[in-house]
Amino acid sequence: MVESTSLRDQLYSDLTDNQSVTITSIGLAVIAFVLVAVDIGPLSVSADFSAEFLLALSLMDMAFTYNDYWPVEYQPRYAVIWTLIFSVATITVFLSVYEIGLRYVGNRVASIAAFLLAVGLHFGSAALYAWIR
User: Fold this and answer.
1) What are residue 45's phi and psi, to 5 degrees?
2) Element (H, E) at 80
3) Which burial class, exposed, middle or buried, applies to 128 when counting CB atoms under 10 A from its CB (0-12, 13-18, 19+)?
4) d(CA 107, CA 29)
């Protein structure tokens, strides 16, 4: 008989496996959410559809990608550097796709497309890195 772990134990394990990546990605997501919500600088998005929520969610997805799909587990300081580099890439992809999408489609479609491409960047880069390795 296979012993299953409780949801609480699984969540605790997922959050503490690579704590430096999890804390960094959640911190960056909160900072991005606040900056977008108060409409500061280059991180301004429309409030019609919660693009700030999707941006924060795509940043938090980095912890999931690193824990479950990234083929190498780095030391904590290198893992934080990895998270910072991918957060810059995620924000760049998200805002670029969002701004381009606003010109051609509505806010809702632009937000969803930006989210999907930003998360696709995470999974695609993990798959590409694993294939190259």
Assistant:
1) -135, 165
2) helix 76-104
3) exposed
4) 21
| Environment class of 103 (CB within 10 Å of its CB; exposed 0-12, middle 13-18, buried 19+) | exposed
On average, the pLDDT of the chain sits at: 78
Tell me the residue type at 5.
T
Asked if residue 66 has pLDDT above 70, the reply is yes
Binning pLDDT at 50, 70 and 90, where does residue 1 land? very low
Contact 73, 18 (CB under 8 A): yes
10 Å CB burial of residue 68 (0-12, 13-18, 19+) is exposed
pTM for the full model?
0.74
Tell me the longest C-alpha to C-alpha distance in the chain. Answer: 56
Give percent above pLDDT 90 in the chain.
1
Quickly tell me which residue has 């880069």 as its tokens: 125
What would you report as the CA-atom Rg of the chain, rounded to the nearest whole angstrom?
A: 16
Of 83 and 38, more confident: 83
Q: How many residues does the chain have?
A: 133
